[in-house]
């Protein structure tokens, strides 16, 4: 198969949602319909098995949240689907944002009773930054929720994106019977089933067919006919280009738990979702069809086996063909590296691969070479863009509780922050380490992992900072002057960039007013 054919058959996407909307359930059902698993529940039970062998994952089990982002690939109707799972919990939002740099599109899951929630809004903002195409799946239609038309309005208003329903619910809550597929103009009624693939009961391609009345009853049938007529009148025809540009979101309704609407979603997805797209670097745009391999690391995962210190770096392939045992250039370290055991993640199985193509995500065993955002190429010097650090929201100083273990602590905190668990800033005098995160939970993860993986004991002292701001100016002397005046609020990030640790929003605004020549940035990437 040619490189272009390999690229065209791949769809790499993320499923995102506010916690509890049904992301995990939908992921499982996509795997089930895709034939990758035989019964739902398998993904979860596998998770629990892994937890037993892993200290780090113990935290996940105890808290019942998904700390790690995982990759699941499967083949469906000639398409290779790569799903990148993301943690829904807000304390791990940064992990999710970084994962979104590695996808070509997303499916956004919304709970029909709760509608658009806090995390839904934030995730949508991240998608908008890169014009990522979004498909919306409105879930839990078997429960009493809001009116479908109201939900569509709410999405347009709050998420600021045009919508176009491509499937429509028949009834809601107790009367929910399934969905009409507006994309294929076709109706499949299924047996509700929580674990197995459902059996088709009936298939209707003309809404005026009287079989519809017999199957679902005359009143619901008429309601469906009216709804569809209304939609066709109110909404424009689905415009695929607008979806690909990120300005229009097709909407599907269903109940992931009961298998309703999932097949409709999956079948439309493989038809409309984009295949691997071009990516920007600091030098030029890289098309997936270029012969030379390139890719970047968007996630680093601590090894699940605590007896081994090595980690897995997740690499998204952007162009060319990746090959096992071939030397590639690690741009940041200016080093040649080859990989003897690159792994792919097919559904729940890991296996060593010989080659991989744009859109694929592979796992590279790493003993400390990689940092999030690192680029690998066949030699060309360039760095993929769009993997910024966002300003943390909670800051604490790292306190060493065991002076005999200061080396371990130093190594541990460096490695953990390379993995992106938190951001590390160093303050003078005394090389004080300030840890910045978006959530409290990370401090527990850090403390736990420092102890169990590095044998170091750490404590934290709360710091009263509001934001960390990176600074740029055409006039370096202005920054020098500012840094002198505000010395106690200046720190360095891991790459040696100066940041201003502003204590309050007011102090940040007055710094900006006093130093109009300096621009203060709340993300680390500002080219
Ligand atoms: P996540 O946090 O977004 O991954 O959500 P989960 O997939 O873990 O689902 C959260 C809860 O909602 C679980 O108890 C699911 O069983 C339940 N759930 C998911 N989908 C549906 C659905 O279609 N209908 C109903 N009634 N419950 C659902």
Q: What topology does this entry show?
A:
Layout: H1 3-8, E1 10-17, H2 23-33, H3 42-52, H4 55-63, E2 71-76, E3 79-85, H5 93-99, E4 105-111, H6 118-129, E5 134-139, H7 148-159, E6 162-165, E7 167-170, E8 178-181, E9 186-190, E10 200-204, H8 210-216, H9 218-234, H10 240-244, E11 248-253, H11 262-272, E12 279-280, E13 285-286, E14 294-302, E15 311-319, E16 322-323, E17 328-330, E18 335-337, E19 343-346, E20 349-352, E21 355-356, E22 361-366, E23 375-377, E24 394-400, H12 406-418, E25 423-427, E26 432-437, H13 441-454, E27 458-463, E28 467-473, H14 476-485, E29 490-492, E30 498-502, H15 505-514, E31 518-521
Parallel strand pairs: 1-3, 1-4, 4-5, 5-11, 6-11
Antiparallel strand pairs: 2-3, 7-8, 8-9, 9-10, 12-13, 14-15, 14-23, 15-22, 16-21, 17-18, 17-23, 19-20, 24-26, 24-27, 25-26, 28-30, 28-31, 29-30
Helix pairs in contact: 3-4, 8-9, 12-13
The protein binds guanosine-5'-diphosphate.
Guanosine-5'-diphosphate is lined by residues 17, 19-25, 88, 139-140, 142-143, 255-258.
Bound molecules: guanosine-5'-diphosphate
Question: What structural class is derived from the secondary structure elements?
Answer: alpha+beta
Q: For the largest beta sheet, what order do the strands appear in spatially? A: 2-3-1-4-5-11-6
Q: Any guess at the CATH architecture of the largest domain?
A: 3-Layer(aba) Sandwich
**Quick one: CATH superfamily of the largest domain?**
P-loop containing nucleotide triphosphate hydrolases
How much helix is in the residues? 25-40%
What is the CA-CA span between the terminal residues? 38 Å
Shape annotation: globular
Largest sheet: 7 strands, mixed
Count the E strands: 31
Summed up, the helix count is 15
**Gyration radius, in Å:** 25 Å
> Average pLDDT value?
87
* Estimated share of beta-strand residues: 25-35%
CATH top level of the largest domain?
Alpha Beta
Family: Belongs to the TRAFAC class translation factor GTPase superfamily. Classic translation factor GTPase family. PrfC subfamily.
Domain Tr-type G: 8-277
InterPro entries: EF-G-like_DII, EFG_III/V, G_TR_CS, P-loop_NTPase, PrfC, RF3_C, RF3_dom_3_sf, RF3_GTP-bd
Organism: Vicingus serpentipes
């Amino acid at each position: 198969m040619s490189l272009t054919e390999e690229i065209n058959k791949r769809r790499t996407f993320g499923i995102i949602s506010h916690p509890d909307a049904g992301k995990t359930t939908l992921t499982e059902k996509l795997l089930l319909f895709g034939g990758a698993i035989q019964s739902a529940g398998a993904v979860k039970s596998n998770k629990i098995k892994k937890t037993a062998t892993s200290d780090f994952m113990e935290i996940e089990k105890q808290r019942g949240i998904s700390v790690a982002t995982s990759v699941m690939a499967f083949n469906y109707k000639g398409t290779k689907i790569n799903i990148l799972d993301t943690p829904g919990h807000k304390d791990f939002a940064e992990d999710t944002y970084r994962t979104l740099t590695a996808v070509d599109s997303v499916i956004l899951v919304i709970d029909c009773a709760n509608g658009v929630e806090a995390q839904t809004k934030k995730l949508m903002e991240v998608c908008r930054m890169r014009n990522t195409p979004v498909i919306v799946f409105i879930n839990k239609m078997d429960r009493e929720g809001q009116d479908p038309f109201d939900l569509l309005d709410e999405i347009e208003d709050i998420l600021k994106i045009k919508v176009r329903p491509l499937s429509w619910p028949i009834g809601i809550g107790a009367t929910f019977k399934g969905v009409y597929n507006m994309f294929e103009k076709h109706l499949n009624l299924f047996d509700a089933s929580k674990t197995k693939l459902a059996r088709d009961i009936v298939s209707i391609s003309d809404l005026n067919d009287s079989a519809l009345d017999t199957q679902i009853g005359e009143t619901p049938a008429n309601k469906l006919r009216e709804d569809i007529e209304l939609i066709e009148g109110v909404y424009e025809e689905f415009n695929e280009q607008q979806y690909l540009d990120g300005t229009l979101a097709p909407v599907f309704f269903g109940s992931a738990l009961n298998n309703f609407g999932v097949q409709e979603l999956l079948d439309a997805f493989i038809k409309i979702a984009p295949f691997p797209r071009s990516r920007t670097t600091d030098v030029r745009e890289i098309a997936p069809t270029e012969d030379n391999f390139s890719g970047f690391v968007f996630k680093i995962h601590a090894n699940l086996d605590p007896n081994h210190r090595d980690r897995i770096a997740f690499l998204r392939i952007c162009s060319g063909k990746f090959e096992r045992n071939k030397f590639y250039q690690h741009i940041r370290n200016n080093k040649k590296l080859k990989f003897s055991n690159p792994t792919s993640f097919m559904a729940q199985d890991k296996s060593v691969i010989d080659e991989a193509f744009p859109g694929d995500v592979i796992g590279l065993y790493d003993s400390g070479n990689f940092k999030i955002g690192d680029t690998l190429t066949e030699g060309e010097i360039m760095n993929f863009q769009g993997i910024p650090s966002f300003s943390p929201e909670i800051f604490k100083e790292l306190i060493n509780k065991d002076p005999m273990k200061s080396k371990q602590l130093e190594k541990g905190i460096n490695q953990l922050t390379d993995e992106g668990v938190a951001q590390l800033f160093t303050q003078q005098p005394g090389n004080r380490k300030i840890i910045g995160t978006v959530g409290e939970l990370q401090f527990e993860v850090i403390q736990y992992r420092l102890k169990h993986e590095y044998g170091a004991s750490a404590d934290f002292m709360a710091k009263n900072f509001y934001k960390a701001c990176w600074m740029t100016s055409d006039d370096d002397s202005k920054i020098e002057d500012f840094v002198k005046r505000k010395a106690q609020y200046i720190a360095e990030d891991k790459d040696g960039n100066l940041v201003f640790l502003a204590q309050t929003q007011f102090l940040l605004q007055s710094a900006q007013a006093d130093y109009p020549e300096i621009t203060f940035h709340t993300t680390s990437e500002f080219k």
